[in-house]
Structure formats: C-alpha cells, structure tokens
Structure prediction request, 1150 residues.
Amino acid sequence: MKKLRVTLAQLNPTLGDFRGNLEKAREALEIAEQRESDLLLFPELFLSGYPPEDLMLKLSFLKENQATLEKLVSYSEGKQVAMVVGFIDCREDAHNSAAVIQNGKVLGIYHKISLPNYGVFDEHRYFKPGQEMLVLKMGEIKIGVTICEDIWNPVEPLASLTLGCGVHLVANISASPYYVGKPLLREKYLSMKAYDYHVAIAYCNMVGGQDELLFDGTSLVSNPNGKVVLKGGTFEEEITTIDIDLDENLRINLLDPRRRYMSTQNLPFKFLELPPPKPKKERYPEKPGSHMEREEEIFKALVTGVRDYVKKNGFKKVVVGLSGGMDSSLVATIATEALGSENVKGVLMPSPYTSRESLEDAYQLAQNLNIEALTISINKVFESYLKALEEVFRQTNPDITEENLQARIRGNYLMALSNKFGWLVLTTGNKSEMATGYATLYGDMAGGLAVIKDVYKTDVYRIGRWYNQKKGAPIIPQRVFEKAPSAELRPNQTDQEKLPPYEVLDEILRYYIEENLDPGEIADKGFAMETILQTIDMLRKNEYKRKQAPVGIKISTRAFGKDWRMPITNRFREP
Amino acid sequence: MKKLRVTLAQLNPTLGDFRGNLEKAREALEIAEQRESDLLLFPELFLSGYPPEDLMLKLSFLKENQATLEKLVSYSEGKQVAMVVGFIDCREDAHNSAAVIQNGKVLGIYHKISLPNYGVFDEHRYFKPGQEMLVLKMGEIKIGVTICEDIWNPVEPLASLTLGCGVHLVANISASPYYVGKPLLREKYLSMKAYDYHVAIAYCNMVGGQDELLFDGTSLVSNPNGKVVLKGGTFEEEITTIDIDLDENLRINLLDPRRRYMSTQNLPFKFLELPPPKPKKERYPEKPGSHMEREEEIFKALVTGVRDYVKKNGFKKVVVGLSGGMDSSLVATIATEALGSENVKGVLMPSPYTSRESLEDAYQLAQNLNIEALTISINKVFESYLKALEEVFRQTNPDITEENLQARIRGNYLMALSNKFGWLVLTTGNKSEMATGYATLYGDMAGGLAVIKDVYKTDVYRIGRWYNQKKGAPIIPQRVFEKAPSAELRPNQTDQEKLPPYEVLDEILRYYIEENLDPGEIADKGFAMETILQTIDMLRKNEYKRKQAPVGIKISTRAFGKDWRMPITNRFREP
Prediction:
C-alpha cells in the first residue's frame, strides 16, 4: 500500500516581503506537521514573491532571499514533513528553484528546466535553465519535483520522469498567471497529463495579485486515472491536505505496456533518499471541488486584484469618479466588495452636459453600495480654462480639445483628493476604450489602478447583470444598463457615434488582440473589412496613450500590459 | 593581392515602413554598384526596422517583410555587388536574419546565433537562434557573415569563423542601441577583436531613433592589425566605401602560430561561392574619422531622438512649457536644433510664485532661439480649483496637493494646445527628477516625449554650458545657470529642500541604477548611508509615476524604459 499525505500551501505572498512570506511558510509548516503530512508544497518563488522582475538584478534582494531560505530551514528542525518551496538559488547563477527541506536540512535543490519567455514572461532575462531532474524517494515511493512551465511542455521533463524513471507522483509548484477560464483549462490539462503518463500530479499554485498579474490558486491533485481528487479554492488562500493512493499508478503501468517501448530524452536524474511515509490513522479524503461560472470568476478576479493592489501597496481607501454610467458603477461595486463600503469614496463631477438621469443613477448607486459620495461641479473651472485659453484659441472652433479639458478637470479633482487624503484613484476605462483610445489621457485615464482595463464593454454589462442577479436587487440601477453609453462631454453625445456597436467592436478586438488574426481572417468570421480596418487603425494610433496608462488587472489571454509590447513609432499598416 | 571593396549603408529605416525602407535600400544598391563595390552591408533588420517588438507576432507584418525582400531581390538583377541585408526569415520559424543577395538571387540566408535577451533586448521572445555559420567565398577571399550580438560574445562564433575557418573578413550587420560612450567603446572593442583574431571587420550599424532607442551609426572597418581604417559619422546617415587590403591578414596568420593550437567549438559551416572581386582602377582610401566630446555626443543624440520621434510619428511642430529653468531651456534648445525655430512653440505659464527673473529668462531664451512664445497665466484657473475644492478641503492645510494642481493646470494647457493645434508636447523632466519622483504625474510629466528623461541634472547643466560655449553666446541666459533650481510652486521653494545636492544625488543614482551597486557598496564610494537610503527610498516609491511617464530618449546604460522593469507592488527594502 503506497500512500502519501500531501499538503498544498496555496498562499498569497507579497513581492519582496521576505519576513511576511517566511511567516506564512512557517504557519503552513506547523499545520502540515500537525496533520502528519509526508510532503508539503508551496508555490513557485514563494519566498520572494513572483515575478520579481528587475529586483532580480539587485544583489541585496538575492541575498535576502537566500537568508530567508536559511531561516525556513532552521524552523524545520524536528519536523518530519518534507517541504518543497520556491526560491531563487543564486549561489552560482540565478535559478528559479525548488528547495527540498526536511528536519533542519536542505536535502536538495531543483532548478526549473523550462523557462517561459513569451506572453507576460521574461524568465530568460533572469534565470539560467536547470540541467538535471530531481526525484525524491520516500521508501518505495518516487516523487518528481517540477516547477510551473516544466509541466506545460508537450514532452519533457514529464516523459523522462514518468516513462523514464517511473515516478509515482509529479509535484509541481507554480505561479500561473490567471486569465478567464484558466482554472478549468488547467484542471483539464493536468488531469489529462496524469492520465496520459499514468502518474499522480500534485499541483500547488500561488494566489493573489501582483501589479497587473493575478494568481488564482485552484491548486489540485489528480490521481493517475486523471481524476481530480482535490481542488483548492479559486482566489482563496488555503492549506489543504489529502491522502493520495499511489498503488493505482503501479497497477495501471503493469496493465499498459506503452512505456516499455517509448523513448525519452537523456536528461540526467538526481535521487534524494528520504524516510518512507509513516502509517496514519485518520484519512484526509477527496475534495474534488466545483466549477465557477464565467461572470463570477471574473468578478472574483477583479475583487482580488483591487484588494491586493490596494493593500499590498499600503493604501486603505480608494476614490472613484461616478458618472452614472456602467463602467464606473461596476468599478465602484468591485471596490466595495474588495475593501468595504467605508473604504470607497465616490465623486460626482457634473458638467452642463451631465444628464439628470446620470446624476440620479450615480447617487442611487452610492446609496445602494452604502459609500460616501462627494459632488464637485466642474462648471466654473471649465469656464476659467476657456477664459484663459480664449486669446490663444481665437478663430478656432470647439472640438475634442474642450471635451478632453472636462475629462482632465475631473482627473485633477480625483488626484487632488488622492493627494490630500491619501485615497488611491481607481480608473474606470474598459478594454474596448483602452483599445480604441476612447478615453482622455490625464483625464479619465488618471489614477493608480485601472480596474476593468482588460474587460470588454460587453463583458462589463454581463458582469453587472450577473452581480445584480446574484444580489437579487438592482444594486447597479436598472437604468444604467438601459441608457446608451456616453461620455457626456457635449450635448447628446453617444459612444456609438465614433465607435462600431460594442458587440461588433469587442469581437473584432478580441480576434485581433487575443487571437492575433489578420484582417482577412477576421473578415472571414463575418465582419465588414471597413469596420475591421477602422478598428485596427484606432488601436494602433492610441499606443502612446496605453503606454501612459496605469496598470490594470489582467483577466484575458492578452492584456494591455506585459504581454502587449507594441512600438509607438510604427508605420506598418494592415494591407 | 586580396582586395575587397566594401560599401556600408549606414541608414535610418522607419519601423514598419517597408516601402520607405526598400526605397532607401534601392538607392544604396545603385550607389554601391556605381562604386563597383564587391560587398554592400545594410544594418540588422533593415527592411522592417528594429526592434519590431510585438509586431513580430503579426503574420501580416512578417509577410510584408518577406515580400519586401523579394522586391529588393528583383531590384538587384544585373547588379554585380553582393549585398547583405537584415530581415526576418519567417519561412519556417522566425529568425533574425541576413540575406546574401546578388544579381537577382538570394544566394544564402544566415540566422543570428547569439540572441540578446537582457537590458533593452527581448530577442528570445521573438526569434529562434541560428545553428549554422555562413561563409562567402569570393575567389580566394572568405567572408564570415554575422549579426550584431554575434560579435559581442567572448568566443563564438568569431573563434570558429577565424581560427576554425580562416575567414579574411567578418561582416557584421547591426542595430546597436546607443548610450553615451558606446561609439568609442564599440570602436575599441571591435578593433581589439580584429587584432586578437587577425581578421578584418566590417561593421554596419543602424542610425536613427525608434521610441526610446537611438542607433548612432558610427559604422567602421578595422583591418587585421586592429587599425580603424573607416569610420562612419555618429548620428548621420551615410553610404561609405572603402577598399580593404586583406593580404595583411595572411601575413599575420603566418607569423603568429597561435591559431594552429587553439580549439574551437564544432559549429557547422555553410559556404557560398561567389565570383571573385574584379580589379578596379581608382581607390576608396582610409577615412578613420575622429572622436566627439561627451557633451556634443549627448546633444547630438537628443537632437536625433527628438527629430526622429517627431517626424516618424507624423508630427511637425512641438510645444514646450518654458519655466525659465535649466531643464525647459535645454529641451527648447534641443527641439529648435532638431526641428527649426518655426516648429517649436514655447509657453510661459506664470503663477503667483513665478519669479520675475524666471519670466524674463524664459522670454529671453525664446528670443534667442527665435521661437514663438505664448503666455497663459494659471492664476484664475488655480483660484477656480481652490474654490471648487474649498468645501471638500475644509479643515485641511495647503500641502503638495496645491503644488500638484498648479503643475497639472500647466499640463492641461499644453495638452489643450496639443489637441487644438496638433503640436506634440515635449516634457522637460530630467533623470534625477524621474528617479526621485520630483515631478507631477499628469502635470509636468504630461506629454508625448520626455526629451531629457535619461539625463541627470548635473549633465543638463554641462550640456547647456557646452552649447552656449559652442555657439559663443549665452543662448541659454547666464542667469539660468546661476539661480538655485526650483519648481516655483510655493514661495521660496528650491529643489534642494527635498533632495540632496544634485552632485551627490546623481552619483548615488548612477551607482544604484546603472551600476547596480548595493547601498553598502555605494557607501564605500564615500556617500552617507542615510542619504543613500533616502535616495533609494524615493526611487522605489515613485515606480508608479515612472510606469505612466512618456517614453524618453535613452542615452545611458540603463534608462527608465525597456531596461528598467521594476514592480510597483514591492515590499523589498534595502537592508
């Protein structure tokens, strides 16, 4: 009977907070030991936080990471559980590493072999790839240690570990950036890997936000049948334990002779001998978990993103400009869920073009969310600008200039409140606006965190509707969903004067940005070439704005952030 | 007698402007052919421009690059010169490549072996490394083809090409990002390589600006003695030709037996047979060029950066807020040199805290530069803001909020002028300010291009002094150099109230940012630990501002741009 008790420490570290992260690790260690776990997994680079970016180039940072590992090792004295913890091994060169620690000793260190350098990843900038696999032997049980990307490759190192070395369990410590649907994809992918290679997989993922990136947790254990027997919560810190039955693995291997005929690469192995697992009395049973619907997942993601950005950066309160429109209503709602009513301030900044309905809706929302609402008119300040610029603007006609001025006065108000009271400004622009430049730089784009920067307008509506339904009440007033979207910067303005309908726009953008299709391919999906080229043209022309936008929470496969590295100076035009 | 006539096309492509770049290539081809050149070198990725960043992920972009190469090939029909041109070979995977073209045919394609992925480089994100070296044989003459980074490695592929294969000339096509002193460093480095490996080197570098990056040209040819026999202008487009005498090479090899005993890696070679060079009548003699002094080099760099950013992005005129201080004076001067007096607008935006001297100096500068100067007071608008915020700010005291408001009104004025008249706003913040956050987000940081973002305050003064001296007149008024630097946002304010003296600050910053020293190591240089930690603390706290700053022209080894990838959320504190 090969049984192994595994604890997954699905925790939320803070980048650079070595002391705080160490304390979290120590607590998890105590719990895992109490639960008589044989193996305790932490996320990738848990001690430092992930991704450390150019802090990797600071010797002092690397040294403190090393010192933190040593403290954790000394905490482990007298503890029987073997833990696998992510840190930066920088003794000779920098490696994204997993230390195997037990009873006051580092038994071995594994270096991540597959370093991603695409999308949001820059791991070739910082790390040297590992050249050797690491296998723990606990009596008869063999456990392969891997880090994140290692398990996402088509063949290696998984093939060598399983088909080559015959490990019973692949442990994977991870910091896997979230996008919508990633938890489900990961579950499918890892359970199919377990099924394909006839091996149990224990996957421990990071949770929490780090600037634009989110980590959703949703750690899991799959048995060698591909059945998920444990699933951690999504966007929840959690320390979960399970007893994995590893006999299953052998049975399947004996019945399926494929592995005897399959060749693997010649990667070297290193083996570590550990004491075998001790017999236990009570059981930690299966907890397969359930799925979340799309809107709930996104909402929870954004709430986590706001909470972590605000708190990890030492803020307490936030301020949101309330226009009575859909975007600001959703942002205020998310902020309230993340931080509590007392920590969210709404500001209404009416102009002559603000409709009565918008003002009413903004007040109603503030009331529904139970947040304080300030009102500061922009009329007088706007007039004083027009007066000051009168001479210079003689013989010109009103245009986008005057519209932008209004947006910028509002931006200045919010920043003044931020400066005076220490409130972080949340911006309310959505992905459709960020893409097309339908936003004012230094105006509605001014702030510290762009909450829905990666959420298309059509999804903003969907999430708003889902929220009201969940609450069983029109927290976001019904009229907000019904009126035509407008910036209200001149009389009777609507978004759709300048933009294609959002249902069309969002699809074209998604094909172009996230699926990287060429215009012809998008046209094949049933969109007019003229609309496609107009959309792409707006996208390209507004690169300079996006370069100056605040960070936003990434929820798609390609957000305007680390995975959108477009030049400003760019004469390329889609043919 | 082994002689080879080489033409270097040190040209300034525009990213994505395939048609324009092709036209430049065609012109260079005509000239090289007229000059009976045997070999014509273009810069790295010349046909697309460099760096293409995430345009690399667009199939349509890659296809147009391929189509452009084909057009160039057809232009080459009937031409005897062999040309080496940088493009993206994307037939099977994406490679940073050099095509060897002669008389209507692609004779061979080389794939860059050494792909940089540090500093400003992300080449592992986009390209697959080459696995094979390419050697051209023109009769008895062997020429190794390399791309940029290939020649900056300590050993390979240079060792194999020279010691292994015995090439007479290494041709290197390059897009080498500029920093102060790079032209001289490159000259030393390449000539020492030539000396060490007993091989002639012909190095053709890109020239011009692409967003934050500059390429300085300064192409060169070194003979196998390490003597630079040709040097291209710095920040100049140029097509230069030289006859290289390659007998020298053989003589040295016979006299120095080292190579017979040195081992090299086993990289495969591919040989291309080309017709031998024909005998020529007249000579293209040596042109070793001269050095530039530091201030002149920086000034020329910034002028190039402004000119290329403005023109390549389709702007004509720029606007600069003139405060009468050193920074804005230098920026206006650079802009005037880059674009001409008629294309630069100065705006004076006095407040009650603006000194009479500052206003006079600003006017005087505008007069000296012969640029139009507008004056728009911020007083009334500032008052209207205070009035509007009066209620909300009851029971608070004036602080940084009111200072920022003034800066933001000025930012709004400049942006309003930009919106109304299509003038690009140049910001005037220097590197010392960008580092310490001594600047207002959406205020003086508002604009399209941050001209001196990578120039420390002490250098701003140096360059200003150099400029006046060069002109033999106080174009930048003498008083600007003499008065204490101040933001003039409250009475009697000076920079040095909040910041260490610039002589100290700049050195600490340079050690920390550019040399990556730890605080203890900086203290060893003779600075007070308290000042060091205070400086580093300011640097860290202002990451969020820098994330929203406009692009700036990189002139140092580490600018706040592509090579400064710091997290905002960061609890790491220097110990």
